[in-house]
Design a protein that fits this description.
Number of strands: 14
Mean pLDDT: 88
Radius of gyration: 25 Å
Low-confidence stretches: none
Shape: globular
Number of helices: 9
Largest sheet: 5 strands, antiparallel
Order of helices and strands: HEEEEEEEHHEEHEHEHHEHEEH
Strand order of the largest sheet: 1-4-5-6-7
Number of domains: 3
């Protein structure tokens, strides 16, 4: 989803002239215009403005070419009667733009624009693909709510839920997916917890009947409660939940949560009632954090504890990454977190 122009304007206003920029070690050529650098939603960008020829925008994982229209497009205002006009409220305020922003938006040459700025620091861009920084191990994926059938054994793929996550998991030596009926079975179901434990301990020879060893376990949504609940036993649901949170805080290496429900392409579960607006449409941020220190969370995908602007469905990795926001890149986070 492309961001609104009004959201882009602050980044354009903050653009500064730079003498050079590189992408993957190669110099970005901008012989026919001016080279600018800026940051937008946590992402470094290099912009080559070539006047009426258009502009090129370079990021770590994207390249955008913008061409200007040869003819002005007239947008006619709708005809409204006086009573309707009086009820209309302003939805947008005027924004003051710099000389450089005017050049970028219109393609019109401005001989003074290059003199208005000092040269800023050069920009170095590189792709964000990662190699495994820890010990490669088998990976077990446990899904959350929404699956209404069960498979007895572990499966080698489950792309209808997890997308192409297997292409972005350099630490996984093999991929195994648990498929359980999370619609009709609760996370605190003792039989289901035992099934999960038996499957999780079957992946490596170093695991025992009661200990999971040398295994990367990835859970989504209620799958995390199922895993945490498997380490404890209680008779009351509230006690179960508190015990699961304790296990979660002590055992989780990395976590991805969300404090805003507008995701990559659409809004989902907005009708679900929440105490706080900080939610992914289904789960509140505080609940997802599970008692982990909030100061550990960052909205950049390089953080182990990642607070995003994704909805609940986006955090399965199925929808991939956004282009213009470091808080909307779940796949990059997963690829680089281990």
């Amino acid at each position: 989803m492309l961001p609104l122009l009004t959201n882009i304007l602050p980044a354009l206003n903050n653009a500064i002239l730079i003498s050079s920029a590189t992408l993957e070690g190669a110099t970005i050529k901008c012989s026919t215009g001016n080279l600018f650098g800026t940051k937008f939603r946590g992402l470094n960008l290099a912009i080559c403005a070539s006047g009426s020829l258009g502009i090129h925008i370079y990021g770590s994982d994207m390249e955008i070419e913008i061409k200007y229209l040869k003819k002005h497009v007239t947008v006619s205002a709708p005809n409204l009667d006086a009573s309707a006009t009086s009820k209309c409220k302003a939805v947008m305020k005027a924004t003051v733009v710099t000389a450089a922003t005017t050049v970028l938006l219109t393609g019109e040459a401005n001989s003074d624009s290059s003199r208005s700025f000092d040269y800023g620091p050069n920009i170095t861009l590189s792709t964000t693909s990662c190699s495994c920084m820890s010990t490669p191990r088998p990976c077990l994926f446990i899904h959350g709510l929404g699956i209404n059938y069960t498979k007895a054994n572990l499966h080698d793929s489950f792309s209808s839920y997890w997308g192409d996550v297997s292409d972005h998991a350099p630490c996984c030596t093999e991929f195994k997916y648990m498929i359980w009926n999370s619609v009709e079975t609760g996370w605190n179901n003792e039989k289901q917890q035992q099934i999960m434990c038996d499957l999780a301990t079957s992946l490596t020879e170093s695991s025992s009947r009661t200990d999971i060893a040398d295994t990367i376990i990835v859970t989504h949504s209620m799958g995390g409660l199922l895993l945490a609940g498997g380490e404890m036993s209680s008779t009351k649901l509230n006690e179960d939940f508190k015990a699961a949170q304790k296990v979660y805080r002590s055992q989780v290496y990395a976590a991805m949560c969300s404090n805003w429900y507008v995701g990559l392409f659409f809004q989902r579960f907005k009708s679900v009632h929440h105490k706080s607006r900080q939610n992914d449409g289904l789960v509140e941020f505080q609940s997802c954090a599970g008692g982990l220190p909030l100061d550990q969370f960052s909205n950049h995908y390089s953080s182990r504890f990642y607070v995003t602007h994704l909805n609940h469905a986006d955090t399965t990795f199925y929808n991939g990454d956004g282009l213009f926001n470091s808080a909307k890149m779940p796949v990059k986070w997963f690829e680089c977190v281990l």
